[in-house]
Amino acid sequence: MAEEHTIQVELASERKPKPNEDGLGFGRHFTDHMFIMDYTEGKGWHDPRIVPYQPLSLDPSCMIFHYGQSVFEGLKAYRTEDDRILLFRPTQNFQRLNRSNDRMCIPAVDEDLALEALKQLVAVDKEWVPSAEGTSLYIRPFIISTEPFLGVAPAHNYKFIIIMSPVGSYYAEGIKPVKILVENKFVRAVAGGTGEAKTGGNYASSLKAQEVADEKKYSQVLWLDGVEKKYIEEVGSMNVFFKINGEIVTPALNGSILDGITRKSTIEMLKHWGMKVTERRVSMEEIYEASQSGQLEESFGTGTAAVISPIGEFLWEDRKIVVNNGEIGSTAKKLYDTITGIQRGAEPDPFNWVVEVEEQSVPVK
Amino acid sequence: MAEEHTIQVELASERKPKPNEDGLGFGRHFTDHMFIMDYTEGKGWHDPRIVPYQPLSLDPSCMIFHYGQSVFEGLKAYRTEDDRILLFRPTQNFQRLNRSNDRMCIPAVDEDLALEALKQLVAVDKEWVPSAEGTSLYIRPFIISTEPFLGVAPAHNYKFIIIMSPVGSYYAEGIKPVKILVENKFVRAVAGGTGEAKTGGNYASSLKAQEVADEKKYSQVLWLDGVEKKYIEEVGSMNVFFKINGEIVTPALNGSILDGITRKSTIEMLKHWGMKVTERRVSMEEIYEASQSGQLEESFGTGTAAVISPIGEFLWEDRKIVVNNGEIGSTAKKLYDTITGIQRGAEPDPFNWVVEVEEQSVPVK
Ligand SMILES: Cc1ncc(COP(=O)(O)O)c(C=O)c1O
Ligand SMILES: Cc1ncc(COP(=O)(O)O)c(C=O)c1O
């Protein structure tokens, strides 16, 4: 690694009290340190550093506040029974970050440097990785455009930052299938848009539909394609799978669906088990018909937050589709147990998905 | 106005040197003061204040950095020959801000308070309104979500800010028609999306297409509808008009097109002149055919930045459509002269569009 890419470390003089592991919730508490690296046109990415967690001081004209040029990632670190710390497929996240960067006209980051930074940051704050059942350390790498300029154009300055938050169990009260509202009015993304990129605007545009779902007591929305409003895209912040007559089906990546890492892992694991998995267009009509004819056996979402989230019901206009009597199916259960087992080092890892944060990653200082 | 809505004023102890009016450019220089108001769930919008222009200090977990929940506006203040300062239809901007707020799940602002804040801010920094031909003070109201939380949900905290930037003449070298690239691959917005809202994500998603246009030496892209890629939406950051066989035609507002204030003013003015103006669906095919048959007389964009921007050429796949021999048309010219005349107080204002910033708006302190 080039000299200028040596990660400088400035440790916090005081450590914050750790929150109680019972009431962590999600994304409310942050660790003692953060990683930052700056981009300057002509100079590239420079000054990678781990510093005490602190506010950003930004000019009000910075482009991030106006034109939303930003990308982010989300992954987790887990503590094993024997006190090792594991990351789940972090390289995938940095590869996806760079694909998002490309779509959003943000300069690519060095994936090896990003991974090294992440490992060092987790090592510095390793006491923040919780150990209670189902808890983990949520990691949020993100890039924001910081040039102080009001013109609509790719910025000449950016910050790449990683912050981390200890998070509670998604299933504190046991796995319970969720109810999903099929969205017919609002659209999340369309071919030619930014759906495939993990960029703020996709999430901002989803809020209005989620408000409607909340009012109707549905937990998330299922997005249909923006052109015909017929084909299934994904659910809130999860990809979606169906088991129809013994076969697993999931919408093929089409440019407007996020290429989920849990989705990819699920497909690989199912194939490893010898199950038939098909990625293709799936219409809501097909799901409705499969349910009517008794062939819709399971449905579940996949994503970093919940890993596997069984779906017990869809509401599609006035049609209610109950899946597997509203109970978790055997495939979803087996996937959940296996993938979370691998993430926590409790199950064999046939694909070498986990990456250990080694003691020597801790910088001497 | 309620007591809590009194705008507090803290004046800067030092004033920055003003930039030379010849080389202002756009959005690079900022005035001495800014307006800020905070929103806290349960308390509403509070603490409106004018303070010295200064950086924002924000936690790196603030939602604006991750989920793009934000809106903005853009308008201008002009200095008249006799040294009065005029705003162009500012109420329209705050009404549109609230429509954008509604789509993005951001709490509405009090439009009267916002206008009052704007007038006071311009009065405080009135020396920053440039006087050279074609120059103006660009005003940028914006709202960002500031809650420090990584969950995808409408934030509980926001900041409403107004900053201002003296800007140069858009037509420093005289009005020259622009060349526009018709975009066939990327999509800016789709029905059910956020195209009608002035929110960062729409602009972030447009950067990639603009990059392609820049490479091909076209000045902006023309967006087609996201569903059929047949119908004309708008151009970069302008609405678009055509004069076909004597009649003015512009795409009807359909939910994915920004409801431009210059567009509205153009339509009102043309009707005032007794011209026929139709808002309807306009396909690219129709424009091509009108050009082939010699009926396409003019085309121009409308927007706050350029006011009226004549279009001299469209490139649609391999078809080049030259409009009016690449010269400015008479309707565009008359609109430009009339609207900019009204904005600068040099022409009669039949619709009461301009709002004067009165001396008494200057707070005593
Ligand atoms: C829109 C969207 N879809 C799907 C996913 C699932 O992706 P992953 O499995 O990589 O977490 C996420 C996020 O995590 C998401 O935000
Ligand atoms: C996407 C877009 N369309 C059209 C316009 C024109 O709107 P207005 O005339 O209100 O400036 C703008 C901005 O100014 C814009 O950003």
TrEMBL record, chains A, B:
Name the Gene Ontology molecular function terms of this record.
L-isoleucine-2-oxoglutarate transaminase activity; L-leucine-2-oxoglutarate transaminase activity; L-valine-2-oxoglutarate transaminase activity
Q: Which domain of life is it from?
A: Bacteria
Q: Which residues carry this modification: N6-(pyridoxal phosphate)lysine?
A: 198
**Which segments carry the region annotation Disordered?**
1-22
**Which reaction(s) are listed as its catalytic activity?**
L-isoleucine + 2-oxoglutarate = (S)-3-methyl-2-oxopentanoate + L-glutamate; L-valine + 2-oxoglutarate = 3-methyl-2-oxobutanoate + L-glutamate; L-leucine + 2-oxoglutarate = 4-methyl-2-oxopentanoate + L-glutamate
Pathway entry: Amino-acid biosynthesis; L-valine biosynthesis; L-valine from pyruvate: step 4/4; Amino-acid biosynthesis; L-isoleucine biosynthesis; L-isoleucine from 2-oxobutanoate: step 4/4; Amino-acid biosynthesis; L-leucine biosynthesis; L-leucine from 3-methyl-2-oxobutanoate: step 4/4
Q: Matching Gene3D superfamilies, A to Z? A: 3.30.470.10, D-amino Acid Aminotransferase, subunit A, domain 2 (3.20.10.10)
Q: What class of enzyme is it?
A: transferase
UniProt keywords, alphabetically: Amino-acid biosynthesis, Aminotransferase, Branched-chain amino acid biosynthesis, Pyridoxal phosphate, Transferase
One GO BP annotation is: isoleucine biosynthetic process
Q: Which Pfam families match?
A: Aminotran_4
Cofactor(s) required for function per UniProt: pyridoxal 5'-phosphate
The family classification in the record reads:
Belongs to the class-IV pyridoxal-phosphate-dependent aminotransferase family.
Could you tell me what this protein is called? Branched-chain-amino-acid aminotransferase
Give the source species: Bacillus thermotolerans
